[in-house]
Amino acid sequence: MKRFDQINMIPFIDIMLVLLAIVLTTASFISQGMIPVDLPKAEQTQAPSDSDEKALEIAINAQNQWFVDGQAIKAEELASILTNKPNTTPVLLRVDKAAAFEYFIQALDVLKAKQFNNLSIQTEQAQ
């Protein structure tokens, strides 16, 4: 039997490079949000601004379920959640195109009542 003077590192490096390629490939497929929202399309869209302050994300999915920063809430709880936030906080509103329009209006109504004026509505670019 042949005795090795040193360990051959090339197969180890090959395996590590393959694993790195797999990790980088799968990382690019991870979606940004965890709440599936099929956004409506719009011709005139603008990329969100990079502000220092993190936006409060309000999402309504196709089943008309409400979420604030990824946490499921009831629609009636939105006003009390906004009471604890300064009204200068940026708000990102993501509403599924299959959601009832009344919930979109209800969210806007609560935001206006609490005087949240820094509002962005997220859509997808129409192609």
Automatic annotation (TrEMBL):
The chain crosses the membrane at residues 12-30. It comes from the Bacteria. The keyword Transport applies. One of its GO terms (biological process) is protein transport. Its main location: membrane. It is a single-pass type II membrane protein. It is found in: Cell inner membrane; Cell membrane. GO terms for molecular function: transmembrane transporter activity. Keywords: Cell inner membrane, Cell membrane, Membrane, Protein transport, Transmembrane, Transmembrane helix, Transport. One of its GO terms (cellular component) is plasma membrane. The accessory proteins ExbB and ExbD seem to form a complex with TonB. Belongs to the ExbD/TolR family. Involved in the TonB-dependent energy-dependent transport of various receptor-bound substrates. NCBIfam families: ExbD_2 (TIGR02804). This is Biopolymer transport protein ExbD.
